[in-house]
Design a protein that fits this description.
The protein is α+β, with helices and mostly antiparallel strands. The chain has helices at about 1-70, 85-95, 100-125, 140-150, 215-230, and strands spanning about 130-140, 155-160, 165-175, 185-195, 200-205. The protein has a five-stranded antiparallel sheet, with helices on one face. The protein is flat, with a radius of gyration of 33 Å. The relative contact order is 0.08.
Length: about 240
């Protein structure tokens, strides 16, 4: 009887466990569904905001275009209209019905089109960003590395010490312009061990749309620079 009672209690506990797991899993799925809904709503709001921003850009471009036309003749400067305005604008163009209005609309469309093209071009240029990390694990000369880093404008320098007193350092900077980069120079971050003199990681961030090099080429060029500075050699 005792064994049978324990068996029944064990079965009851197993059923309770299954029910609890089922409830927890249902809560997880509900949270995922809720978060997904929020993400979809946020994406829709961002898309509507982007459309509204594009409309505002066209409106501002129109105001800018009309300001250019207005200031060509000094219309907002409270001065006497120059003679060339009457000769080249008033008599042959403005005096013709709807011609001046049509030219203004055409100029508005041209300026708006060029502005939208330029904004889309900037967006495309920003889409080529690439960040990758290479494990190096090569022996270096810490003295030469410090001399090399003094030639760079460091944005971030970080140092961490583990429980066994192992020290790791990080340094980050934007590389100066160099013909070897064949375009935009990358942002570089390195992690190294100054005590044991080892270069551990190289992290490069670059926009591939603004350079002719590939990902591997960037690493080779940077290692070539390090070798020239005597930080380490390929031998």
């Amino acid at each position: 009887m005792l064994i049978q009672g324990m068996k029944n209690e064990l079965n009851t506990l197993q059923m309770m466990k299954e029910r609890i797991n089922k409830n927890l899993l249902e809560n997880v799925f509900k949270n995922i569904e809720s978060n997904t809904k929020y993400l979809v709503d946020a994406s829709g709001a961002a898309e509507r905001s982007s459309a509204s921003l594009e409309v505002m850009q066209v409106i501002l471009a129109g105001g800018f275009a009309f300001d250019i036309i207005d200031r060509m003749s000094g219309g907002t400067l409270n001065i006497t209209v120059p003679d060339w305005v009457n000769v080249f604008l008033v008599d042959p163009i403005i005096s013709v019905p709807f011609m001046w209005w049509g030219l203004n609309i055409i100029f508005l469309l041209v300026v708006s089109n060029r502005l939208l093209w330029f904004m889309h071009h900037l967006q495309e240029q920003a889409l080529g960003a690439l960040t990758f990390t290479a494990k190096v694990n090569k022996r270096i000369s810490n003295e030469n590395l410090q001399k090399f880093l003094k030639k760079r404008f460091l944005e971030i320098t970080d140092c961490s010490v583990s429980a066994d007193h192992e020290e790791l350092r990080k340094s980050s900077w934007n590389e100066p312009k160099d013909p070897r980069w064949k375009g935009e120079a990358p942002k570089i971050e390195i992690q190294y061990d100054p005590k044991n003199e080892f270069l551990l990681l190289i992290n490069l961030t670059v926009n591939l749309r603004r350079t002719q090099l590939s990902r591997d080429d960037f690493l080779l060029v940077f290692e070539e620079i390090l070798a020239e500075e005597g930080v380490y050699s390929f031998t």
